[in-house]
């Protein structure tokens, strides 16, 4: 996206009591009468985001409760460290029935299901949502998830080798039906033309599948593919397959470097730069004045205990941080598990942070930058980050729910629209078309 262009916006969610903020479930503005386990809350959020013309609502998902920190489930359960989390995939079909235009995306791991199941599931969801489905493809780094499925976690390189073949099988299955294979010829008693439905006969290192898929070609011929990898393998996977990438980079300088890296990798795979949107995470905190917004930020951030931050950071690193001192400088630590998140270990001015500082920030926002101020000020901060880093827009994460999303849609979106930085109407019908929309 050229600097000065229009932004794309998406909303980060989980089917659980916390998103990126461990404070969310106990925040005084979070209304407990909206039950996070029931669909009504997500209907309301999806409709609100559709009213705001967002590209998508995006559900993360974890198939475990982490015991990485201190070898115990207690910290994760005590602080609601992205736990519990109910499966978000069934919600997509539900939300497809109560919305019309917004994209509907969820995380689904390639590590624990055969690709035939995934190809069938996502083609079905693409039909159910009229082409608005998005699949965030992950390989599942945490050993807790592998243990839940009775397997050993593989090394990163090996997981992505498997993921590449997984996507190849899915693509073959989605392509096993031609677009015009269904005839519906009642008089001739021909439902489908068998010459336009093919077996795939895939035999690879990791998977075998005969095919064809028993789902007809979906509106997008499979869902839009999303990715959020930070390792070299994850970045290669994103560059090769993704229609959009969700990236967490607290500083615009690091966001720009990440963007350049992804675009260079895309070029090496023969993909044009506009084929994949880069959405950087942000956590908006709005106030009636700058001082009021800072009070809201302080109120929220103080609700996150350091121990909770260490628990969620340990889970995301797949490394127990209990043996590291609170005052240790994270950038000086030698552990290889820390390399993937090194850009999150600096303050906004670039100075290094201690474990306690990194953990607290991770518990507050999973290291997303907090844009704090009046609606006009937050819009200013978004434009400054967007124009400095490049990219295509933002993935928003809330500090309380419901309420925070509505505030942003009602108060910040109109400002961005008046400034010519955000769309004023939907022009696409599918998730890929929304991501491709330029105006």
Number of strands: 13
- Which range best describes the helical content: under 10%, 10-25%, 25-40%, 40-55%, 55-70% or over 70%? 25-40%
Spell out the helices and strands N to C: EHEHHEHEHHEEEEEHEHEHHHEHEHHH
Biggest β-sheet strands, sense, barrel: 8 strands, parallel, barrel
Range of strand content: 5-15%
Strand-pairing-aware structural class: alpha/beta
Strand order of the largest sheet: 1-2-3-4-9-10-11-13
What is the rounded distance between the termini?
12 Å
Shape: globular
Mean pLDDT figure: 95
Q: Uncertain regions: pLDDT < 50 for 5+ in a row?
A: none
Tally of contiguous helical segments:
15
Radius of gyration: 22 Å
Question: Could you walk me through the main structural features you see in this protein, from its secondary elements to its overall organization?
Answer:
Helix content is 38%, strand content 14%. It contains 15 helices and 13 strands. The strands form three sheets. Strands 1-2-3-4-9-10-11-13 form an eight-stranded parallel beta barrel, surrounded by eight helices. α6 runs parallel beside α7 (232-241) and α7 packs across α8 (252-268). It is globular. 48% of the residues are buried. The mean pLDDT is 95.
